[in-house]
Amino acid sequence: MNFVVLTIFPEMFEPFWAHGIIRRAIEHKKIFTSALNIRDYAQDRHQVTDDRPYGGGSGMVMKPGPLAGAIRSATRKMPAAGTVLLTPQGRPFDQNLAKELASFDGLVLICGRYEGVDERISHELIDYEISIGDYVLTGGELAAMIIVDAVTRLIPGALGGEDAAENDSFANGLLEHAQYTRPRMFEGQEVPEVLLSGHHQEIKKWRLESSLMRTLMKRSDLLQNKDLNRQEIEILDKWRNEINKILQCHHREREDLKGKEEKI
Ligand code: 4HQ
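Above: the input record for the complex with 4HQ. Below: its predicted structure, written as tokens.
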């Protein structure tokens, strides 16, 4: 995967390329990265990339010329690349979109600053408009880093463990199960016994229950939209029966209390 970022602050990406999984993926040639300065594609002597908005008002707008020049320069070298504009008006970024982007040979990530980019840029030159969430950033750079990060870890061989990407949150539409490491006792809290047992089948079942419970409690919206498999339905059914027993018992107690009060 070839990532090309277009930005007026290419230096922001230097520490990002230089650490952790991203750094290792670059070293192992799983990804190729570059940050091009949009300013280099400005035509005027002062290499201006922004200007005042037509119609007046505060703030500045990214000029279309330098941006179009930078995008064309990047896509000339990799015609099969997808182009992505980072904007709050874009499609919400999620794991499914990360998977879709990971299937490209190259991605050109366009980072705006100021109040955004001239409207005439978008249509022909942009394949995707993507938002990383409903909040306002000072520029698209952090959004681009998030996309590079989430896409990189989906590229075969980019992560250390072979199946690490298949096992984690959202890969199966569920939140990750609870995790424990040494020591066995921490501030009076023990590690669940089953995880020390060595029973792989039991551990697998416990982890699925942990994932399902956390998803139900913290993000029930994810469960609503998920295709549940047989084992997942079995677990949810078991919980429903347990909850129903508790509620029936509770209900009966209240009925008994009412009965006694009526006699008095
Ligand atoms: N931006 N998701 C760039 C964002 C944003 C987001 C605000 C994009 C400023 C110039 N980008 N403009 N949210 O807040 O992607």
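Notes for the reader.
The CA atoms of residues 251 and 257 lie 10 Å apart.
The longest helix spans residues 230-263.
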